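Suppose you are handed a protein chain with no further information: no name, no annotation, nothing but its sequence. What can you learn? This example shows the usual starting point.
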Amino acid sequence: MKKTLIALAALASTGAAMAQSSVTLYGVVDVGFTSVNNSGAGIDNTGLSASNMTTSRLGFRGTEDLGGGLKANFQVDTRLSSDPPQGSFLGDRGAWVGLSGGFGEVRLGREYNPAFWAGFLYSAFGTGGVGNGVGFASRALAFAVTGQGNTSPFATASQNAIWNNNSITYSTPRIAGFQGHAQVGFDEEPTTSAGKSAAVRLNYTQGPLAAEVAYSKIKGGADLTTFNNGNNASNALGAAGAIGALRGLTGIGTTSADHKSVVGGASYDFGVVKLMGNFGQETGSITATGATVIKVKTYEIGAVAPVGPGRLRASYNSSEIDLTASDPDRKYSKFAIGYIYDMSKRTALYVTVASLKNKNNSTTSLGGFAATTTNVANGRSTGYNVGISHVF
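A reasonable first move is to predict its three-dimensional structure. Written in structure tokens, the prediction is:
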């Protein structure tokens, strides 16, 4: 049960003020047994892993009624790595404060990139476990190439693919099923615009139908010479692979890259089954010339159906990675199926099984591990998760 706490500072206020202000503590702990097996000489892994169904986290959210329909709101959400324990920053999953009312809502601080939601809401498995949607891994890959720095001090590409620091986010009221979102992220760099971002998202929800599309652009990633030294390899690009070598980017000096995202999705709930799908295109281009250095295209088709005391999930994913004109687009596809057994409103058991196939020298392996798993060119990857997720 979520517990509502009254801030101690409110004791100095009036009783009426106390009744209008509250803070909620919430969280998720998700741990399971995971096994990933890869073709031939690929590296396998078996053991416990976290966040296979729902991302483990610890957070605080609060609201204060200011009267006249106006409210002050805040949220601080922090990653909780339950296995293995890892360091995290307070608010690394979002930290913002804002106002809401008849005009909509404005949030200031670290917030989700609007393009993230356009894929996440229409993915059967979301971001976690061996069944996770390939759109999220593809976004992280493209961000690794363009080297975006908006989320400093969070250096991982997966962080860059989901959140923006220093942002102002505005959401309109929902009108006739439509709601719009716009976000501007400031670079806060004294001499460059590296990390400056802008994004828009339009959502439609009416009865069983939901759909949306989003666009975002982040300027001036890290110096691309970072990728010329042959040491920055990406699992999705291949064991052969230094990114700079694959792209032929030697000698480009201090050129930086911009990142553009176009993401969309839709779902329809028939009652007996909810069908959904999403697509995405991530493009990295040299800031000065506009020349493309990476383009990743993805799509996912999925379904979630109530079966017995839980839900059956299934999805088919496909990804295509375009690096250079001379290099064949690296492709991989994945099928996943799983079941969630709801023991209560807060506790669930889950199982997921997935199989991934590579083409054109792609060496992608199923995710879900903090530890490394690698595959061979054109190899297969199979795996499963069995675990428990508890919400409090």
